[in-house]
Design goal:
The protein has 339 residues and is an alpha+beta fold. Among the domains are: 96 residues, Neocarzinostatin-like (Immunoglobulin-like, Sandwich), CATH 2.60.40.230; 106 residues, Sandwich (Immunoglobulin-like), CATH 2.60.40. Helix content is 14%, strand content 33%. The protein is built from 4 helices and 19 strands. The chain starts with a helix and ends in a 25-residue tail after the last helix. Keywords: Membrane, Signal, Transmembrane, Transmembrane helix.
């Protein structure tokens, strides 16, 4: 009976140990089985992903060399991470268009890019060595990208915004990569990105990984939604969104300029008018009692007579840019008219 029990235990299928892939504090992926036949189904679960992120799960051949062209895209599945960043879904085992070694590829569809590859074996699918990279090596992104840096006070007044793009790359080829040259492009809206070449100083041997930091700068006064992309060997590697705030300091400057300039022009104009206006010639004097009449006493008052003290006090002042001419003199009465 003991021998029969031992044989029965050996014949029972043993549960496969789950495969897990994670980078320290990065997202992780777990498979229910490391090996399965075509037409079967496995459970893919993970944790540490961005909450509510839309994820795509694919079976890929040749360790996903060449991107999603090596994956069974028609048999892929889309899942959404929960509020805690975890997910779980069923994935049918399909034969990828490329031979194994194969991987289960999990990547975000929208927003900040994150991806994980877990080794997986498709039973019955052919296996072939990885293609030779021609002695140039092959770099691939192994972790999520991020933008480091903050906007200073000068950016609020229109200075060029700048960030540092940080991502982890690994050499999946068979040759050493020395001082790779990346192409960094920045796109705004529907416009095509403007590419610039940036050299990263370092050496990556086959199987090694390194942290790459590339500086990115926008033109002065830039604001809105931008997207930073990185290519290596004419193949896309990184795509990171960048939301740039509006430089309100420039708007405040133009508002102040629209108020100050007209006020200054008005003050200058008034100063010029005050300089060029003619001097006043209208004089109103009072006749002294008992004294002889002078030429200035002939100026008529408001009622045609000689102005008195009360008339001088209530006479309106002449405008600064207008001086009236003196009234014509009246003829003096003769002795015959006034005996």
């Amino acid at each position: 009976m003991a021998v029969l029990a031992a044989l029965f235990a050996l014949l029972l299928p043993q549960p496969a140990a789950p495969a897990f892939a994670a980078d320290g504090d990065g997202p992780g992926v777990e498979l229910s089985r490391q090996r399965a036949e075509r037409g079967g189904e496995i459970t893919v679960s993970g944790s540490g992903w961005r909450p509510r992120a839309l994820l795509m799960i694919l079976v890929c051949g040749q360790n996903m060399i060449g991107g999603t062209d090596a994956c069974a895209n028609s048999e892929g599945r889309a899942v959404t991470a929960g509020a805690g960043g975890s997910f779980s879904g069923k994935l049918p085992v399909a034969a990828p268009p490329k031979p194994c070694p194969c991987v289960v590829h999990v990547a975000t569809v929208t927003g900040e890019r994150a991806a994980k590859d877990v080794p997986f074996t498709v039973a019955g699918h052919p296996t072939a060595p990885l293609p030779d990279s021609g002695g140039r090596g092959r770099l691939a992104v192994l972790a999520a990208t991020r933008l480091e840096g903050d906007d200073g006070v000068l950016v609020f007044f229109g200075a060029p915004p700048s960030r540092r793009l940080v991502f982890t790359v690994g050499n999946l080829g068979a040759a050493t990569v020395e001082d790779p040259v990346f192409r960094v492009g920045v796109a705004h809206g529907l416009y095509a990105p403007r590419w610039e070449e940036r050299r990263w100083r370092g050496t990556l041997k086959p199987g090694e990984k390194a942290l790459v930091k590339l500086d990115v700068e926008l033109p002065p006064g830039a604001h809105g939604d931008y997207e930073v992309s990185v290519e290596y060997g004419r193949k896309p590697m990184v795509s990171q969104p960048w939301d740039v705030g509006r430089p309100w300091g420039v708007t405040i400057f133009w508002i102040l300029l629209a108020v100050v300039v007209p006020a200054a022009v008005f003050r200058i104009g008034m100063a010029i008018v005050d300089r060029v206006r003619p001097p006043g010639r209208h004089r109103v004097t009072r006749r002294h009692s008992g004294g002889p009449a002078g030429p200035e006493d002939d100026v008529p008052g408001p009622e045609g007579g000689v102005p008195g003290p009360e008339d001088s006090a209530t006479a309106p002042a002449a405008l600064p840019w207008f001086t009236p001419d003196p009234a014509p003199r009246r003829p003096r009465p003769s002795a015959e008219e006034h005996p």
